[in-house]
Amino acid sequence: MTLYELNHAIRGVVEECMESEYWVQGELSEGKVGYGNHFYGEMIQKDEQGVRIIAKARLTCWDNTYRMVALRFRHVTGESLRAGMNVMLLVRVTFHEQYGLSLNILDIEPSFTLGEMALRRKRILQQLEEDGTIHDNQTLPFPILPQRIAVISSATAAGYEDFCNQIQHNEYGFHFVLQLFPAVMQGAHVEESVIAALEAIQQEATQWDVIVIIRGGGATSDLSDFDSYPLASCITQSQLPVITGIGHERDETVLDYVAHTHLKTPTAVAAFLISQMTETATRLEMLRNTFVQHTTHRITYEKQRMERLSIMLPMVFGTFRTRNEHRLELLWNDITHRSRNRIEHERHILQMLEQRTKQLDPALLLKRGYSITTCNGQLVRDISALHTGDQLTTHVGNGIIYSHIDNLEQCKKD
Amino acid sequence: MQKGLTYEEAINRLEEIAHQMEENEIGIDEMAKHLKEAQELLAFCKKRLYAVDEDIQKIMENT
């Protein structure tokens, strides 16, 4: 039996026994469009640990079918069919004498891949949450003047060119310093390439204000390239705020979740940076105006004050002597006036006392006709102290009368 | 009169004497002594006042 005869027999068995179409799921390990626009690839299945390959099969998809399913796949998932994806394929098992066993793709279920991608993204985000680092970049203070921009992009990308044009020809004339840190922005090498660029920037972090990660405008495929835990970790550890503009409308990648600010397109990133500068410039202008206004007011006030003082001071000092002289005069007048008053008052009191003393002088009473009688040198006030025969001495105004008592008669009391 | 007396201290003492006179707090025996003190203080204040005024005039002439 020849090999061909053997393979032909196998083909017959396969065609007879494997007539049906099968939905099969696995990882697309290879895939490319080759001769005749047909798709050629390989599908594998790994063990539970995801290390060892436990099944493998060749894939083919003919031109017409491939164009149709690839378009639908891209429409639903936003991605092109490529290696590393988990896929669910509708296949027919074929065996060719020359090429051997292969699975011919009849259809693809894009929602399966979409679900797988979403699941993967969710797991990465959960891990970042557990690490406690998911918001680290967002909590970095954003520079008030984001002028020194480290750009991670592909030099040939249209989005990069748009970004540079918009930044460098901004209508306000703000000066920006841009430097490209080239990276592969699509395909299997995105992760390592972007990480390398981020690490290069971190080496000279003091020279930059922000990091911008941008990708060609309009590109809507291969978002899952940015759903990478190592890449996301690298951003959370960055000392500089990261802004993303990786050109997609449909969904957010893990990169967008961890970045300080995420925008849809490179031009949106440029507009954002310019607006930050405008905001700062406006604030500065307001501060300047406030400063000028306050300074002008203060100078005017001080001028007026100076003028007022220059008029007032000579006036005040000119009248200084007069005012104080007047005060001294008043004080002196007050003191002398009160002294005189006080002396006058005391003199008056003395006069009054003198008058009263004069009125009580016995000589004055004797002159008026009163007399003073004594007996044995004692003033006679009480008749009971006298006796018949006692000698009395009576003082009158102009002499003294000596007499003897003949008789005593006491007055009756009322 | 105490040495090193200032204008303010002197005029305050004058005010005090005037107040004591007003309130009859000074006895007749003390009155002459206080009046003499007041007279001395007044002379001192005038002297200081005129000296300062002269200085001020000079300064203002030079301004």
Provide keyphrases for this structure.
heterodimer; A: 414 residues; alpha/beta; OB fold (Dihydrolipoamide Acetyltransferase, E2P); Rossmann fold; 3 domains; 5-stranded mixed barrel; 5-stranded parallel beta sheet; 10 helices; 46% helix; B: 63 residues; mainly alpha; 2 helices; 81% helix; 0% strand
Structure description:
The complex is a heterodimer of chains A (414) and B (63). Chain A has helices spanning 3-17, 63-77, 110-131, 158-168, 190-203, 229-236, 254-258, 266-318, 320-359, 362-367; strands spanning 21-33, 39-46, 53-61, 86-96, 100-108, 148-153, 177-182, 210-214, 242-245, 261-263, 372-375, 378-379, 391-396, 399-404. Chain A is an alpha/beta fold. In chain A, the strands form three sheets. In chain A, strands 1-2-3-5-4 form a five-stranded mixed barrel. A five-stranded parallel β-sheet of chain A has the order 7-6-8-9-10. Chain A has a four-stranded antiparallel β-sheet with strand order 12-11-13-14, with no helix packed on it. In chain A, helix 5 (190-203) packs parallel to helix 6. Chain B is mostly helical and 63 residues long. Chain B has one domain. In chain B, helix 1 (7-22) packs antiparallel against helix 2 (28-62). Chain B is elongated, with a radius of gyration of 15 Å. The interface between A and B is medium-sized, with 19 and 22 residues.
